[in-house]
């Protein structure tokens, strides 16, 4: 495949995307406009050069960003369609937002309170949704808020995001991150912070910028600016309404324990003015309510790194998942059957072959036989709402016994049920 910088309309990325003009670039990535050759849909392709992210921490950030974006489906969050990769580059294929950054619009002058309220409501909808899924953005600012062709806001750039499993034993996050002018005071103390509360602070800075036209905390000297943030040293301009001033002061409360919460923001008089319909947290693509979706949490959810490693003829397991080796002792394939039905088929097979079901759960089963010389582990992961990945591996015992039972007997039974091999043999 040619280097992406030299791509012309005659060349297509992975035979699927026709790449166009460069939209922007950073230290580790470039973003291009592209067109899906099959559907004609415009997309944005973020290209990350693997050579520039050799450090473990940067790779971890990319892993986390993909994993987070793949689980977020909200009308005010940029969609991640798929992830592609080669040995040297990683490609995020995302929703193309035509209106550009909110930052470019606010640079032309402050907004009316009504317009600012519209954007702020959409921002809080997105942030509240993220928090409900255990995701904290940690770098909210106008540059990371995009506008679509209808003037609706979309949150982007989850590269610095955190998830609940990063919280330490003290219940707090400790990584220092964010953009100086938007960073919460508790991050500066280096004693740990609540991810949801620092996002609320950043939302407060954004609301101030939208309605004032300038930053609440600003100084050419970085340490002087940090002192202002730590002390909460700001003043609302005289043209702000009293209700807005009250809300801003609660958002920019330097004490995270008394700072306004998302639930309280939704009840605020200024926020609700003119009517506000709260968006139910559901998956747009599947139509599944969050409450209903929670009932399905027993099925393992694949993140995008797992999906990347499934690409036919492109073994990237070493890049994204050191724990999985694509060898004779393991195989993965896609199935349209539900996890329950797959486990049921394995159970039926075990009875026929007189194997003992050593362990069984909703998303997997472990078989043992031949006096302990054979152990087969089958696990099922969700790929989409209708597609699942079945992973089979040797859990112990003799390798030859495993190959004989898996390849010649169990594999044909499962593969004949609409399966397509994607990894392994």
TrEMBL record:
SMART domains: S_TKc
Enzyme Commission number, as recorded: 2.7.11.1
PROSITE patterns linked: NAF, PROTEIN_KINASE_ATP, PROTEIN_KINASE_DOM, PROTEIN_KINASE_ST
Chain ranges of the Protein kinase domain: 17-271
Positions contributing to ATP binding: 46
Stretches assigned to the NAF domain: 297-321
Pfam families: NAF, Pkinase
Tree of life domain: Eukaryota
Catalytic activity: L-seryl-[protein] + ATP = O-phospho-L-seryl-[protein] + ADP + H(+); L-threonyl-[protein] + ATP = O-phospho-L-threonyl-[protein] + ADP + H(+)
Protein keywords: ATP-binding, Kinase, Manganese, Nucleotide-binding, Serine/threonine-protein kinase, Transferase
Matches recorded under InterPro entries: Kinase-like_dom_sf, NAF/FISL_domain, NAF_dom, Prot_kinase_dom, Protein_kinase_ATP_BS, Ser/Thr_kinase_AS
Cofactor(s) needed by this chain: Mn(2+)
UniProt GO molecular function: ATP binding; protein serine kinase activity; protein serine/threonine kinase activity
Gene3D superfamilies: Kinase associated domain 1, KA1, Phosphorylase Kinase, domain 1, Transferase(Phosphotransferase) domain 1
Top-tier EC class: transferase
Any one Gene Ontology BP term: signal transduction
SUPFAM superfamilies, per the entry: Protein kinase-like (PK-like) (SSF56112)
Family: Belongs to the protein kinase superfamily. CAMK Ser/Thr protein kinase family. SNF1 subfamily.
Name by which UniProt lists this protein: non-specific serine/threonine protein kinase
């Amino acid at each position: 495949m040619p280097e992406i910088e030299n791509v012309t309309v005659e060349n297509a990325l992975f035979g699927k995307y026709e790449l166009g003009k460069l939209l922007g670039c950073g230290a580790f990535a470039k973003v291009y406009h592209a067109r899906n050759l099959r559907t004609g849909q415009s997309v944005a392709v973020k290209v990350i050069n693997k050579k520039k992210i050799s450090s473990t921490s940067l790779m971890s950030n990319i892993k986390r960003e993909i994993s987070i974006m793949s689980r977020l489906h909200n009308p005010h969050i940029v969609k991640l369609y798929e992830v592609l990769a080669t040995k040297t580059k990683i490609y995020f294929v995302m929703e193309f937002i035509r209106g550009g950054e909110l930052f470019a619009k606010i640079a032309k002058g402050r907004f009316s309170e009504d317009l600012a309220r519209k954007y702020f409501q959409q921002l809080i909808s997105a942030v509240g949704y993220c928090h409900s899924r255990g995701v904290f953005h940690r770098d909210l600012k106008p540059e990371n808020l995009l506008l679509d062709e209808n003037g609706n806001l979309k949150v982007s750039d989850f590269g610095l995001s955190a998830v609940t499993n990063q919280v330490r034993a003290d219940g707090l996050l400790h990584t220092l991150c964010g953009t100086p002018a938007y960073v919460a005071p508790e991050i500066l103390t280096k004693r740990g912070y609540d991810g949801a509360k620092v996002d609320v602070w950043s939302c407060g800075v954004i609301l101030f910028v939208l309605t004032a036209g300038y930053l609440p905390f600003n100084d050419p000297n970085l340490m002087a600016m940090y002192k202002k943030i730590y002390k909460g040293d700001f003043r609302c301009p005289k043209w702000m309404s009293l209700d807005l001033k009250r809300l801003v002061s609660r958002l920019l409360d330097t004490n995270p324990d008394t700072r306004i919460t998302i639930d309280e923001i939704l009840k605020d008089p200024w926020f609700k003015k003119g009517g506000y319909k709260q968006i139910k947290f559901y998956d747009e693509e599947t139509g599944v309510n969050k409450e209903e979706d929670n009932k399905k949490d027993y099925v393992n959810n694949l993140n995008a790194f797992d999906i990347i490693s499934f690409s036919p003829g492109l073994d990237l397991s070493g890049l994204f998942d050191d724990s999985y080796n694509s060898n004779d002792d393991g195989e993965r394939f896609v199935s349209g059957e539900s996890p329950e039905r797959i486990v049921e088929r394995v159970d039926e097979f075990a009875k026929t072959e007189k194997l003992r079901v050593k362990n069984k759960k909703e998303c997997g089963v472990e078989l043992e036989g031949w006096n302990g010389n054979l152990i087969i582990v089958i696990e099922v992961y969700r790929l989409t709402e209708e597609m699942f990945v079945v992973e089979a591996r040797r859990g112990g015992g003799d390798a030859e016994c495993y190959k004989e039972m898996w390849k010649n007997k169990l594999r044909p039974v499962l593969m004949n049920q609409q399966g397509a091999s994607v990894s392994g043999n």
